[in-house]
Amino acid sequence: MGRLDELDLSLKLSKSEYAERLEAAQTRLTALRLALGGKLPGYEGRLGPALAIVLEGWDASGKGGALKRLVAELDPRHVHVAQYSAPTDREKRHHFLWRFWPALPGLGGMTVFDRSWYGRVLVERVEEFATREEWERAYGTIVEFERSFCAEGGVLVKLWLHTSEEEQLHRFEKRQKNPLKSWKITEEDWRNRERRPLYLEALEDMFERTDHPDAPWHLVEGDSKRFARVRVIETINDEIERGMRESGFPGPP
């Protein structure tokens, strides 16, 4: 998996490379998705593994743009995007994983989690919304939760979009100056940025303690939006194909 400080954030693609690789990755994803759902000729009545994608990253790391390109060519009836923010008062009364269970896909299904159960060991840890005992206990709970999903025929792809502190500041300032994007930047975003060292410490613990063979973490170099968008889809395609092989489900040519 590597470490965040080992990523080469200078990686980028030209416009022509981006267009070519993005189209190829989206086309392959469409074929894989249709095969998983039993929609391609020769797959009728056969459902492949359930596909869950966890999309996490820094504020302004490009998650929205990556998500847009990820689902752009898919039939909207064949993919569910589950978005999460701070838990409600009702949700706080339950186990922290309770609100995520209903969105998990079944065989042949696909869900993209726009933020996820990892809030427990990131924002809830750093902002002290959870006690140390609670977030320490959560690492093992999360790993068992993910292993259970994978053992029952699921493929779980976990991605973290990483941007440098300088690039994040540039994007914050650019958003703030754009009337059509200023809604994306809040005082909380600026405050979280000031606590970046605490989040970095929490991230390194998270990667070390929740990276496991069934669902390893994939760190995406995000200073170039073009590069990150392509890397996200190509990584997901590779993981789908790995899941197909391990489950004995044939992949499309």
Termini separation: 29 Å
Give the tally of β-strands.
5
The helix-and-strand class reads alpha/beta
Q: How would you write the strand order of the largest sheet? A: 2-3-1-4-5
Q: What does the overall shape look like?
A: globular
Summed up, the helix count is 9
Describe, in short, the structure shown.
This protein is α/β, with parallel strands linked by helices and 253 residues long. 47% of the residues lie in helices and 12% in strands.
Give your account of this protein's structure.
The chain is of the alpha/beta class and 253 residues long. The chain is 47% helix and 12% strand. Helix 1 packs parallel to helix 9 and helix 2 (63-71) packs across helix 9. The two termini are 29 Å apart.
List the defining traits of the structure above.
47% helix, globular, alpha/beta, 9 helices, 253 residues
Fold blueprint:
Elements (H helix, E strand, L loop, with lengths): L14 H22 L13 E8 L5 H9 L8 E4 L5 H4 L17 E5 L8 H4 L5 H20 L2 E9 L2 H13 L9 H8 L1 H15 L6 E5 L3 H23 L6
Parallel strand pairs: 1-3, 1-4, 2-3, 4-5
Helix pairs in contact: 1-9, 2-9
